Amino acid sequence: MSKSSLTLPKILNKSIVACSRFFQIETLQLRFSNGEERDFERMKGSKQGAVLIVPFYDKDTLLLIREYAAGTHSYELGFPKGLIDPGETPLEAADRELKEEVGFGAKEYSVLKKVVMAPSYFSSEMTLFVANDLYPERLPGDEPEPLEVIKWPLSKADELLARDDFQESRCISALLLVLKDLAQNNDIN
Amino acid sequence: MSKSSLTLPKILNKSIVACSRFFQIETLQLRFSNGEERDFERMKGSKQGAVLIVPFYDKDTLLLIREYAAGTHSYELGFPKGLIDPGETPLEAADRELKEEVGFGAKEYSVLKKVVMAPSYFSSEMTLFVANDLYPERLPGDEPEPLEVIKWPLSKADELLARDDFQESRCISALLLVLKDLAQNNDIN
């Protein structure tokens, strides 16, 4: 990898060009190291980032939620997730979201990976967690209707991956990382 | 799964509340089947959608690109990708992007899966392809600087997944789907 390609472009100017209640669109005037100048647009997201949790109901069963998604105007299957509130750690947010959306806490959380949606346009980071050793505990959420919680056997992961309503790349990444870890642990044992 | 949870909320009203050169933010006034009313915001994206290509340079080696990402203001490793142009099929877009960004065409494409970024906020769909049987052919792209193309051995996939600059969930999903397919084919053979 050449040194020059790792020299970040210089931000000559930036300004907010549009904003709504949830989104801010920023334009960047950039000069690349080869002298080329371009304007880029990006979305300013939540600074705190977000979390997603893969909850193991038992060693063979995951918990999914089915929730209305306004972007696609459809009901989607996925893992519980949400924004990190100001002052929360990612772990605290994961535990709160699990209690709000699924009605369980977990005694054990581990981080799978940090991901971003589309780094060309968004900065917000999401931490993917696995939750084990669940116990019932519900916190009130802000959902407009109760979320449907679904037990999904790990043995049917391929069926889940083939479904049209399990299509969010962050959920797919989380599921595949879990399956990969399980396969590697089985190889070792 | 209860019937009521599959009744889509009614869209009472929708309007564009902010827009820029690339983005349109729409607000939806929704009434859920339980009578609850809420306003949601979502982004209107490219109707055509997008493609991402996992190119096999040979049976043991993938091709990656390193590209500036404005959202995170960083150089990121990932697979070639781009928007589908009006009038193009996803396959035609994949072949064009591969030629523009990597300098190769492919004689064989197969679809891994269709994914979305975050269905709560976005509708745009991305088709993930695998490209095999490459041959050199370059089309001019619109990048502000030449993209760095990197050969990455499949045997080092875990190192790639552990890197902080390989963090886009759609790239992670594509890589893990490829690894899963390879593992299943090895089990069969």
TrEMBL record, chains A, B:
CDD domains for this protein: NUDIX_ADPRase_NudE
Signal peptide span: none
InterPro entries linked: NUDIX_hydrolase-like_dom_sf, NUDIX_hydrolase_CS, NUDIX_hydrolase_dom
Enzyme class: hydrolase
Cofactor dependency: Mg(2+)
Residues annotated as domain Nudix hydrolase: 43-179
Transmembrane segments: none
GO molecular function annotation: hydrolase activity
EC number(s) stated in the UniProt entry for this protein: 3.6.1.-
Stored PROSITE patterns: NUDIX, NUDIX_BOX
Designated name of the protein: ADP compounds hydrolase NudE
Species this chain originates from: Psychromonas aquatilis
Name of the coding gene: nudE
